[in-house]
Amino acid sequence: MTNQKKRVVVGLSGGVDSSVAARVLQEQGYEVIGLFMKNWHDTTGVLESDCPWLDDKFDAEAVARKLNIPFHFVDLSTEYRARVVDYMFSEYEKGRTPNPDVLCNREIKFDVFMDKAFELGADYVATGHYCRKETIKTESGEVHRLLAGSDGNKDQSYFLCQLSQKQLSKALFPIGEMVKPEVRKVAGELKLVTAHKKDSQGICFVGKVDLPVFLQQKLEAKKGRVFLIPPESDLFQRDWSNAGPDANSDLLEELSASFPFHPKHGKRIGEHNGAHFYTIGQRKGLDIGGFAEPLFVIGIDVEFNQVFVGMGKEHPGLYRNVLKINTEEVHWIRPDLALKDGESRRLKVRIRYRQPLQEGVLIKRENGMFIVFDEPQRGITAGQFAAWYENDELTGSGVIS
After folding, report:
1. Contact call for residues 140 and 95 (beta carbons, < 8 A)
2. Is 161 a catalytic residue?
3. What pLDDT, in 10s, does the model give residues 370-401?
4. Active-site residue 104, yes or no?
5. What pLDDT is stored for residue 125 in this prediction?
6. Which of 51, 131, 161, 204 is catalytic?
7. Nearby residues of 49 by Cβ (< 8 Å), 6 or more positions away
8. What's the CATH code of the domain at 130?
9. What confidence tier does 218 reach under pLDDT thresholds 50, 70, 90?
């Protein structure tokens, strides 16, 4: 079957990447349809937002007209609130820091949105992500590989770390082989309205937010104490040298645990408006001055509403060598490569978008997956996603516990 007989619905976001993705598909001979989704319209806590989704819809529609492709609109704001934003509130309330962009891709773009695309007769769904897909044949059948984008500065495979084989089978990433300047050039030559538009920032479909104000829609502000922990504290005297594939589960569990901060370990230096509004590694928002170096959040206790900070970006409380992912939160994009209990594998890992890949060992135990890094990692944060790669293929991920 030729591409001309296959229909692709492109998620036109009103940005330059999805605009050029639609154009590339046209050139490849697909029948292309543009579909814009409205996912958020509440401006509480959102910065610089008159009505951003309306502007994006206008630009997406203009691109569809320019490319002479059908344009459709769908309102997924109810699903987005239930499956992404409510999850955010729930995680912050527990003292964890979620990644809504990863959830948006798993729950919305490649789930609810994909269903809407199939209602339009789509064979595939395409997005403007900077990543690549490759389909190979194995002994167990067809397998879809999620590969890093060719543009190392824009690789967005991390945001897709929770996709399944079923979702990948119907996904296309038309600009994955391109670099950003090339995408801008194509858009400029086509005189697309999005050619020079700035890339979106902040929470997926919400935008840049004042996080405490945004979270106060559901989470109550409450005064608590801030404690300064000195770098020489005994809390940081962990011996990481025995962490490895032969380490027993108890040791790995101990080394992966957050530092057990307590007010007795430090000195009270100020107040905050709610521990659940803070995240590990955070610098701004403390509003406490008078110290030789900047203060960073190194621990939060939502049960007792306490925030613990350290002075300086090299404070030992910011660094750990081991993290844990609970068994039920381990996800393999490549189930055929999944580790069994007792197995280990050396891979490359990142714990946040745009972080350079880090060397480490994945160790599977009955009580979870542990990642032991060669070098201490700054700001390991519960609720975030760790994603692991074999060469340039993202093979799995999980929520840091």
Report:
1. no
2. no
3. 999 999 999 999 999 999 999 999 999 999 99
4. yes
5. 98
6. 204
7. 43, 207
8. 3.40.50.620
9. confident
Whether residues 79 and 168 fall in one domain = yes
Please classify residue 93 by burial: count the beta carbons closer than 10 Å to its beta carbon, then call 0-12 exposed, 13-18 middle and 19+ buried.
middle
Cα–Cα distances in angstroms (integers) from residue 139 to residues 98, 336, 339, in the given order: 37, 10, 18
Residues comprising the chain, all counted: 401
Catalytic one of 51, 104, 131, 161: 104
Q: Are residues 113 and 190 in the same domain?
A: yes
Q: Are residues 181 and 228 in the same domain?
A: no
Identify the three-state secondary structure at position 396.
strand
CB atoms within 10 A of CB 104: 23
CATH number, domain with residue 386:
2.40.30.10
Q: Does the residue 248 lie in any domain? A: no
Domain count, the chain: 3
Same domain for 168 and 301, yes or no, is: no
Output b/e per residue, 261-297; b: 16+ Cβ within 10 A. Answer: beeebbeebbebbbbbbbbbbbeeebeeeeeeeebbb
- Range(s) of the domain holding residue 9: 3-214
Q: List pLDDT tens digits, range 102-141.
A: 999 999 999 999 999 999 999 999 999 999 999 999 888 9
Q: What CATH number corresponds to the domain at position 221?
A: 2.30.30.280
181-188 mean pLDDT = 98
